[in-house]
Amino acid sequence: MELTAGHVWVMVAAALVLFMTPGLAFFYGGMTRAKAALNMMMMSFISIGIVGVVWVLWGASMSSGEGFLQIVGNPFATFGLEGAGSTPDALIKIGYAATFAIITVALISGAIADRAKFGAWTLFVPVWVTLVYCPLAYMVWGGGLFGPDGAIGQALGHAIDFAGGTVVHINAGVAALILVLIIGNRRGFGKDPNHRPHNIPFVMLGAAILWFGWFGFNGGAAATAEQGGLIWINTLAAPAAAMIGWLITERIRDGHPTSLGAASGVVAGLVAITPACADVSPVGALGLGVVAGVASALAVGLKFRWGFDDSLDVVGVHLVSGIIGTVALGFIAVPSEGVTAGGLFYGGGFAQLWAQLAVAGIAIVFSAVMTLIIALAIHKTMGFRVSTEQENVGVDLSLHAETAYEFGVSGHGGSFQPLHDLVTGKSEAAAETQTPAGKESVQA
Predict the structure, then answer these.
(1) What is the DSSP letter of 116?
(2) Contacts (Cβ under 8 Å, ≥6 apart) of 64
């Protein structure tokens, strides 16, 4: 079959979505302390490597095709993508789907910044993608429980999740909350001013890359030019409105708008429009964005009131705005032949609202229970949290033997001996006889 413009667009969209994960690395890396920036970025990059392998071997097979009890696909049906090319564009679609799995698990990492063992994270990633992401993707997109022919879809109506409100954002937000509750808070949470973001330009650069890539995230599956145009406009409108909503909230609450708030508002709007991008009007997208921006701006403060250390606001942004975008479709979804009779505000009755509430609620419970089992197993065996000493030194130096910024020290590779001695604590005397600048870099 000849390569068409449609095929090329999906390939480009997949590349855009893949680019979002390095963008997330900058977004998260800038929000951490300087001594944890590289570790935070590495948690995103290692997700690309691990999930890329998992998806080729069994992930793609588990998220589509014939399944078990409408919950998950057979991992051995197309293991290693053997026989997966049943249609000319099958591998293109598989590649596109892989990028969604990659960024979903990478999103979780922001909640446990500064204190998670890198080895534990590298085990969590493939297990979570296999046991949580793939089944939920199958249930929503792969012909499972929530599909038009699924048991829940037939009982309550087909739930709309065009690009991942439940599969990506609610799923990642719930998993992030569970990990935070298991691993615990950072030392000095809510008291130490050094927990503030160390590089706001990185945060804004990351947000810009995310917004750029999100046009592929939402638009890659557009079926027609009309739908593609609507998705593009909505992907512009919702985050723009959310940014304004977040900044106004900051101005009223705190007396000043912030750059961090602008970047976070953009992401909140992108999260909210993700499930709804093809099924709301541009005016609806504006309203949805404002609500998401204000709600997430207020929600991120709850971690201090309730005492859970969601380091980079994964719960406040992705879970909260993901629920808003998913449930809002029950009110503002426009009528579409073969998809929905419309939301409550368009005369469609309560049918779509019940479907959206059901998919959001079940996604929350499923992700919470499965993540709890996985995280507890890792935490009780190899341990998920670094030692107090490693956290004080900084996870960049203690886990990777390198730092993001030199501060006058050269040669921060893993074999740099003075840093190695300081990290491992092998010899206090050896550390003191080495160049003083080495000690300064650890304190930084």
Answers:
(1) B
(2) 73, 97, 138, 141, 142, 143
- Whose CA is closest to 312, among 202, 215, 426? 202
Dist. CA 296–CA 422, nearest whole Å: 41
Q: What is the DSSP string of 409-434?
A: ----STT-HHHHHHHHTS-HHHHHHS
Place of tokens 């071997």: 57
- Give every CB contact of residue 438 below 8 A, 6+ residues apart in sequence: 409, 418, 419, 422, 431
Q: Find the range with the poorest average confidence among 114-118, 287-291, 412-416, 418-422.
A: 412-416
Instruction: Give the tens place of pLDDT for each residue, 13-52.
Output: 999 999 999 999 999 999 999 999 999 999 999 999 999 9
Identify whether the C-beta of residue 410 lies closer than 8 Å to the C-beta of residue 419. no
CA distance 109 to 111: 5
User: How many C-beta neighbours within 10 Å does residue 292 have?
Assistant: 33
Residue 361 has pLDDT above 80, yes or no: yes
- Reference 47, options 110, 115, 3, 141; nearest CA is 110
Q: Where are the alpha helices (DSSP H) in 129-258?
A: 134-141, 151-156, 171-183, 200-219, 225-254
Give the whole-angstrom CA distance, residue 91 versus residue 110: 31
CA distance 294 to 249: 6
Q: CA 383, CA 391: separation in Å to the nearest integer?
A: 14
Q: Which residue has the higher pLDDT, 160 or 194?
A: 160
- Among the listed residues 333, 332, 271, the one whose alpha carbon sits nearest the alpha carbon of residue 296: 271
Q: Locate tokens 């890792």: which residue?
A: 378
Question: Residue 345 in contact with residue 337, Cβ under 8 Å?
Answer: no
3-class DSSP assignment, residue 311: coil
CA nearest to 328, candidates 364, 349, 357: 357
**Both structure tokens of 205:** 């650069």
Task: Tell me what the pLDDT averaged over the chain comes to.
Answer: 91
Report in angstroms the alpha-carbon separations of 285 from 26, 157, 242, 270, 279: 27, 23, 10, 10, 9
Count of alpha carbons within 13 Å of 90, Cβ hemisphere only? 14
Q: What share of the chain is helix, strand, coil (3-state, %, to 5)?
A: 70, 0, 30
* Confidence at residue 407, expressed as pLDDT on a 0 to 100 scale: 65
Per-residue pLDDT of 282-293, as tens digits, reads 999 999 999 999
What pTM was computed for the model? 0.91
